[in-house]
What we know:
With 480 residues, the protein is of the alpha+beta class. It is 52% helix and 15% strand.
Amino acid sequence: MKWFDGPIPAAIQESRTKRVVFIVYITGVDEQSAKMNETWDNNQVSLTCKEANCVGLRLEAKSEACVQFSQIYPVILVPSTFFIGLTGVPLEVTGGYVEPPEFLKIVQKVLTMHQSQQSPIAPPPDGVPVGGATPIQDAPGVVTQGASSNPPQAHPQAQTKEETAIPLDAKVERAKELIAMKQQQKEAEKKEEEKKKEIERRHLGEDINKLRQWKEEKNLQELKDERRREKMEERKARERVREQIARDRAERNARYQKEKEGKELKKSAEVEAKMAAQRAAEAVAARVKSETARIQFRLPDGSSVTHQFQSEEVLNTARDFIEQHMGNPAGHVTLQTTFPRHQFVEDDMSQTLLDLQLAPSAVIIVLPSRSSSYVSKLNDGGGGVLWLLVAPFTALWGFIYNFLFGTPPQPRGEYTEQPQQTADDNERRQSPTRSNRPKTAYKRRTPPSKQEGNIHRFTSGDDDDDDEQATWNGNSTQQM
């Protein structure tokens, strides 16, 4: 392939002038370019391009001319071939290596497209030379015609006669006129050629502008596609971030639930251990308490006796103790509990205090039997039948009194007899006279006893305390 040696503008002008296809071949130093060079050196390809008078320009990929060319026609692959028509628009663009037979078909297709784009030329009319020159005849024997026409042959004798008939001055004048007309014709042809070149230049500028606009639109479309692709990638990235956040949240919740369950299990284990230790301590305390049984005996006369026994001792031991304490060795007494009310029989005497649920503490009411010498002793004391009638009520009164106000603690095993209240004292207590009646409303509201811990102390209306004697108004002011 014979390549054009001049610059790009000269090659474009040459293709415009000849109205042929302008071929630009971009080559490099790689293996594909070497193979494509062999395709261009193929005889059939070179012969086809030569017959079509194609103007071919070969550019190196990294040369300045290639950079200038790529500003108008984007070069994507190396090697690549651009077949440009008369309008400046590429008729065909090939990239990479193409085998010679296939590349020859592409060249033939481009040449066919180029011929179809050219406007058909009408044949010249009759009498007009093919070269386009018009003969001009001014004097006999002188004919002026275009550069591509041949003058008609005149008869030699006639020409000689005419030349001898015309004077020399007329011939010179006529030659000057012909020279002037020929110069005018040349100037007109030159102007026409310049006009054609200007038109072609303008068409080339329009084609270049169209190509530049097409390139800008293509770049804009590529930017839009790139922006759309970036948005899609951003949306996918956001979705991935959301999924990652959801996974992290689920893992955190699972870890929190696991830790919570672990803490709850640990806490429940600690609570169970604490409760087990508490139950063990309570069991130990209950076992310690159950080793002894503190029993309070309520006697028939209203007094009480408290004594501690071992919980493994039988109830008969407690009965022997209270009988011995009462001084009644001959007969037995009857024992019973208050709540729940249960009277012990002879079969219960052989059971332990722990089995009878009298440990660690209990209250037992002592009732005398009918054959007891203790009753005889009471009868010998002067009460007689009247005391037998009053004794149950007295015992009930003592029980209620002790239940409400309590009894002072007594030493273990020590028996303390409470003084018996006479009927006159009870009557005097229940029927107070006017002299010992409370004098103020404050004293009338004062209860008959004061509680100090587990001890109740009776109050007297004859106390000389100023606070007890004084009264108070609504403003917390003391009135004497």
